Backbone:
């Protein structure tokens, strides 16, 4: 019985770890920037791939409604450079993200898009 439960939980965790979203987006400083991004869950958080860049974001919230994750970028001197906050509404597959740069005056970019879940 104990092994059956362990195997079941292992299979469930593998299916959760394999969540992968393919998303298009539009926004930015002029509102006309477009692109494609891939979000893939791994053991450390959400791996975000776009262009030649790849970063692991920290999961803030993950329930039946939304997947919310963030990346905090520090400068080499330890000061906060930017915050990248992204969310996917799981039922509608809507993507929203904001990037806030810690400059003076403060600059922020807003993006929206749609995603497809790769099961």
Residues:
């Amino acid at each position: 019985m104990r092994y059956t439960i362990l195997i079941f939980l292992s299979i469930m965790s593998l299916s959760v770890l394999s969540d992968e979203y393919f998303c298009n987006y539009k926004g930015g400083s002029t509102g006309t920037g477009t692109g494609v991004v891939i979000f893939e869950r791994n053991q450390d958080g959400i791996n975000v791939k776009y262009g030649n860049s790849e970063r692991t974001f920290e999961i803030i919230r993950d329930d039946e409604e939304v997947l919310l994750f963030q990346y905090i970028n520090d400068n080499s001197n330890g000061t906060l450079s930017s915050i990248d906050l992204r969310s996917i509404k799981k039922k509608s597959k809507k993507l929203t993200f904001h990037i806030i740069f810690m400059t003076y005056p403060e600059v922020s970019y807003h993006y929206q898009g749609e995603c497809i879940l790769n099961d």
